[in-house]
Amino acid sequence: MRDLLPYLKLYKKHWFGLTLGMLLGLATLGASIGLLTLSGWFLSAAAVAGLTVARETFNYMLPGAFVRGFAMGRTAGRWGERVVSHNATFKLLTDLRIFFFQKLAPMIPGRVSNLRDADLLNRLVADIDAMDHVYLRLISPVTIGVLGVAGLTALICWFDQTLGLTLGAILLLLLLTWPVLFYKLGKRNGAELTQNKADMRVATLDWLQGYSELTIFGAEARYRAAIYTAQEKLLANQKLNASFNGLASALLMLANGWTLVLMLWLAADGVNGQAPDPMIALVVFATMASVELLMPIAGAFQYLGQTLTSARRLNEVILAEPDVVFPTDTTRHSGQFDIAFDNIGFAYNDSEQPVLRDVSLTIPAGHKTAIVGQTGSGKSTLIQLLCRYWDVQQGEVRIAGTRLQDWNESDLRAAISVVSQRVDILNGTLRDNLIMAKPDADDALLRETLQRVGLGKLLDAPGLDAWLGDAGRQLSGGEKRRIGIARALLHNGPILLLDEPTEGLDKQTEKQIMALFESHFTNKTVIFITHRLVELEKMDTICLIEQGEIVEHGNHHQLLAEQGRYFQLNQTL
């Protein structure tokens, strides 16, 4: 249960709605028990009165009014409890998702690099959804059940102490034993159900995202079969869950039936020493109504295993410490955005082989530097270290004369604009996809920026309100790169990082993209990552990296004149 503690603290914020929901649930329960109990007594008393002279004086109106009142109260209470409880729960889940994302963001990519995107999505959606069981299926039913047992016991004790204590003892015994029984029954299945949900989501997203490639290479059927396998396992878990629900209902009815027989036998000679009268019906119908107390509890605890498994999966992220911690003080720097890598070394956590070794490089402010090398040579790792995705394990990195560890996160992000080979398009409007780079940008600035990067045709109706992403306008590879450039223009950081921005584009589009960089990003400190030796004569400096080390350094003409490794690559590529 300790796994649930981080989430119980969030309940304090919504204590009023959650408490009000439980009070309405308790009132609804009281109205249901009162309705059935009073109805049983009323019918019996009316029948007895009709057979005697008391029929002339029997008050039919007052009990009838209470019956109607309980009926309306039960309906209104049930509606109010559903509205209030679910409203508070949805707000709680919203806060929990925000809380989870706030904990997740500082750990990207270091601590969560071993997790699949689909698995993270499952934690953010399905695992957090499972946390509503804590209130709706555990806290609220148990609290209402305990208070209901106490209230019903007190009611019957008012008429007959022996009958009241007997019924209370039976209900309390069931209240204590059934949660343990059904938790044990559902623990393993709940854990498997949670994991199988995650497996099915991962398999489905793998199939959807890679459908084109899988079809081309003949692997689509195998990935689709993995979805069916995960689905069959999930359906088996859900079927077993339904069986537990049926077992809980059957045992509840059996226990209620035997309790009813016992209470009828005890009350057969009369209630509280009196001759048999309609009070027997009151006790019997009150016993029948006690099923309302235990119904939510009977099967609720079988979901506890599922909830605890989801909590543990969430805790793997929430309780983890980020590898990179930013200071909160305002960054002090020279204002000249030069970059210095001083004898840095770096290796990923799961690798003994260093990715970068003894790399030293100085880039003056306003200079444009190309870093070239084959795939896997450490080029992208270098700029990821500059963005402080990870911390170097040897040496230090400086921007504007200040150690990277002394930059706070907001200042560092404001200083760096990035254009990568993968430009993510959000499911949203064209405007939404641009203002993420500059939230205070007005429509006029957005239109001007699109014109500058050659995307003026996107401004045709509906313009900035055009929907992009799934079920929206599809963009070509070149258009996506131009969206990335537009974001960099809007962000307007003094440092520009270009990570393979022309990868996968045809030569004509590649030249257009490079021309955009040349015309729109003057007076900025630029690092251009590429393995293609294109347009490099326009760079102030070129660094050739192989196996994590800088092997050549100079401008295009110098490196060609040396006829070294760069010269050889230039001849072959």
From TrEMBL:
Forms a heterodimer with CydD. GO terms for biological process: amino acid transport; cell redox homeostasis; glutathione transmembrane transport. It is a multi-pass membrane protein. It catalyses: L-cysteine(in) + ATP + H2O = L-cysteine(out) + ADP + phosphate + H(+); glutathione(in) + ATP + H2O = glutathione(out) + ADP + phosphate + H(+). GO terms for molecular function: ABC-type transporter activity; ATP binding; ATP hydrolysis activity; ATPase-coupled lipid transmembrane transporter activity. Residues 339-572 form the ABC transporter domain. This is Glutathione/L-cysteine transport system ATP-binding/permease protein CydC. GO terms for cellular component: plasma membrane.
